[in-house]
Amino acid sequence: MGLLALAEVERGARARLPAPIWDFIAGGSGEERTLAANLTQFGHYALRPRVLVDVSVCDPSVTLLGSPLRTPIGVAPMAYHRLVDPEGETATARAAGRTGTLLVAGIFASRSLEEIAAAATGPLWLQLYWLRRREVLAGLVERAEAAGYLALVLTVDAPRVGRRLRDLRNGFAVPSGVRAVNLDPELMAASHRGGAGASGIEDHAREQFDPALTWSDLAWLRARTRLPLVLKGILTAEDARLAAEHGADAVVVSNHGGRQLDGALTSLAALPEVVDALPPDFPVLFDGGVRTGTDIAVALALGARAVLVGRPVLWGLAVGGEDGAAEVLDLLGTELTHAMALLGRPRLRDLDRGALGAAAFAPPLTSRHPTGTTGGRTGLQR
């Protein structure tokens, strides 16, 4: 593609995908205020470059829960990659392996855990939602361990799915040719229904997600696996401390890409308090609104060990399959290294809060999140 900026691949993906699928991927909850703020929050930080530093070699590599990565970048867990490419998650797995990035496969993947693992050449984690049927969770954990997955990522911010108005207006349902193949079809039936004023995704979550989950339940999962446990969806210092106390090995600061509680803290605003609440060696990951390598540098400077990227990977997959997804990940890694050089911080450990200035400027809304956030099909021109 000769990709120069993610906005280019975003436009290409929107042009290629049917409107309801684009809205499912691009949309947020409610009036999409948090979705928009995730993007603009990066503009509130100024960068403080140092000069006359040897930046002839910049090293963005990192080790995360024992796995070496070429860059501190991972693919966030997302459902149904086959909505945008026939190969789905196996193409994404190959792209992540080619670029030295982490892949977090989703519980609602449209390729089997074993197929994804066979395609992967880099570190692979599995994301879970807490289902009402615990035996299903236990079975997925066993399969993940047998297939070589290296960690479990439990999403903890979804006792129910946020009101995603685009999906409700579209009556969105997962197309019949795409399904969550790692779960029994009976468990997923509601996701294929949809209909006027309804969302198959929301109906399915209401039926299958356990809203009674509490901190004490984590002991059940801990007792069934030797894999590291990562909690995704932490936005407060209080919950960060509880995560560590209840045996989590890492956390992901995330507001679910603006798809859960509209008006929630942006992930970037929450990141410093979460980092400060945990021991220095406790891994904190980040997702939410990353669109450039400079965004990644800001998150790292605020204390993230690595960032997860979601929608842009699906854009790349939609436009160019495996190659398109790999180009998106390569571009972000290249931009990060470029930013490190211009900042005069050639190693990741040099990226600390001293690299950031006080609130500087918020880019105009139209520059990063074009106008209209009402949740309608054409409300967000992205």
UniProtKB/TrEMBL annotation:
All copies of domain FMN hydroxy acid dehydrogenase, residue ranges: 1-361
Transmembrane domains' residue ranges: none
PROSITE patterns cross-referenced by the UniProt entry: FMN_HYDROXY_ACID_DH_1 (PS00557), FMN_HYDROXY_ACID_DH_2 (PS51349)
EC identifiers of the protein: 1.-.-.-
Cofactor: FMN
Entry's Gene Ontology molecular function annotations: oxidoreductase activity
Any one Pfam family match given in the protein's UniProt record, by short name: FMN_dh
Signal peptide: none
InterPro entries recorded: Aldolase_TIM, Alpha-hydoxy_acid_DH_FMN, FMN-dep_DH, FMN_HAD, FMN_hydac_DH_AS
SUPFAM superfamilies: FMN-linked oxidoreductases
Keywords on record: Flavoprotein, FMN, Oxidoreductase
Gly residues composition-biased segments: 373-382
Superkingdom: Bacteria
Region (Disordered): 362-382
The family this protein is said to belong to: Belongs to the FMN-dependent alpha-hydroxy acid dehydrogenase family.
Protein name: Alpha-hydroxy acid oxidase
Natural source organism: Streptacidiphilus alkalitolerans
